[in-house]
């Protein structure tokens, strides 16, 4: 187990996944803060911390459930014709559906953030919250909505790294725990940084589109899909790591350029 966690693939997956979990968790922090700010001042930090801890617990529980489903790799339906072949399993269906969901959700979020950035915040602000229990209930609902993206991202980043699903499950749990710990400790600085650099969050959502396509191709690969005798191959994780690293490097250069222009 330790040997796997110390491999270059596992370390790259952990770092990339933790980064994405933090960037994509910014909205979660914002909505939790809006719900908590409706409470008396002495209860706000308590509600925020409880909300983030509940988010971590929810994600870990969902990770166990999704990992179990992905473990169902035996085909239950096979189809063969002259030009098309497929052997469907629950694993392939979960990955395919997850990939479609990530692409749809990411493109919708990008469009919403460009056209109406404050839409979701207005919806949360309009809800009446009079007690700590009401705030926590509202936070639980918000957490569950954001947990789906988080879990599918984790699956896309770690699926296929090791034949034993328990190893990748532990890797995903470590990434979730680290990201939540960072958000609890540095929620305000992270939020302020993203407010100053909104392109970082758009970039994170764009990465989800890449992960969505990766999940779809992986589903086709695992179901032994063939078109006109050509097998669909899985996209190597290294391509994704390079795309993310290159995009972040370009964003860093853009950030430095903006900073120098302001100073001048």
UniProtKB/TrEMBL annotation:
Output the InterPro entries linked to this UniProt entry. Integral_membrane_TerC, MFS_trans_sf
Where is it mostly found? membrane
The regions listed as transmembrane in this protein's record are 12-36, 48-71, 83-104, 135-155, 167-190, 202-223, 238-255
Provide the membrane topology annotation: Multi-pass membrane protein
Q: Tell me where in or outside the cell this protein is found.
A: Membrane
Keyword Transmembrane helix among UniProt keywords: yes
Q: What is this protein called?
A: TerC family protein
Organism whose genome encodes this protein: Winogradskyella marincola
Q: What is the lineage of its organism?
A: Bacteria, Pseudomonadati, Bacteroidota, Flavobacteriia, Flavobacteriales
